[in-house]
4-hydroxy-3-methylbut-2-en-1-yl diphosphate synthase (Glossina palpalis gambiensis), 372 residues
Amino acid sequence: MNQNKLIVRRQSKKIYIKDIPIGGGAPISVQSMTNTRTTDIEATTNQINQLKKAGADIVRVSIPTMESAEAFKIIKKRVSVPIVADIHFDYRIALKAAQYGADCLRINPGNIGNLKRIQSVINIAKEKKIPIRIGVNSGSLEKDIQEKYGIKNPQALFESAMRHVNILNKLNFNNFKVSVKSSDVFTCVKAYQLLSNEIEQPLHLGITESGSIINGSIKSAIGIGLLLYKGIGDTLRVSLAADPIHEVKVGFNILQALNIRKRGINFIACPTCSRQEFDVIKIINTLEDRLEDITTPMDVSIIGCMVNGIGEAKKSDIGISGYRNKSVIYENDRKSCNLALRPEGTAGCVRAGISNKLFNNNIHKLWSNVSI
């Protein structure tokens, strides 16, 4: 776990989704959601396991029908990562999902029926000791709130969330977290700020329906990043119209950029210019592909010339810098040997360093000046 000391996190109640703590100072977890049909048991199981391998701490699965609930029962037995059951409108599906092992229920109490139905869901959540996530989205606000505020209004999201929160409070249930998502970054950020001052429960961050990989990643990085920098947020999901594996990668990249939590390699690379002495773009793409399975946190710099290359290399665990047609590798900032280091050599150097525990607690540094 890494914590940026410049960020003072909001104090919040700690809840657990299976064995993953949320809030109360716990590491900020990264979530994603399956986009397969839940009734396709094999495809959904495979995607959940792929998301776990990519680093997802928690995975959400939509359960829109009773048929999906029966499929969920089988899926849940085949996976180990904590699963959130996403349910709308039908309280009976929520009951089934809880019975079948859901680790958390994503519902909005106000849209699953009368108080008796809500109470039945609360009762099974208490019995199974599982939390609930209240998930408010600007695209599905209550009609009266839409008429009062419109859709792109942080007060609308806040009021809707508090309506659901008050229902759970009246039923003496406080094992929950809340999200207030909008596709508009500033609406979303302000809504979370309002909510963070009103409740003690943990907050689930996200920019909903943010778009494609590039557009959605930028929106999410700005919105989620602003909130995290202010100390708001206990878990997050980056919502992309793409393979959900990308959601996990972008989520960790956001946390890593803020020095909150690190996983895998942080590549530092120059944008290239005519001074480059080797093909930086080719090498960085090759290394990212060959080392995407690495989970050990480390910095690897790939700089095309000596202007900034040596300085970046000295700060990195492994650094490559173009330098007057020479190839030199350094260990602990001391010249070790002459070596022509190519992408496969760098990848091997990373793996060898991990095997020999050279990167634990930043005890050792390796860097090289290279021209390829």
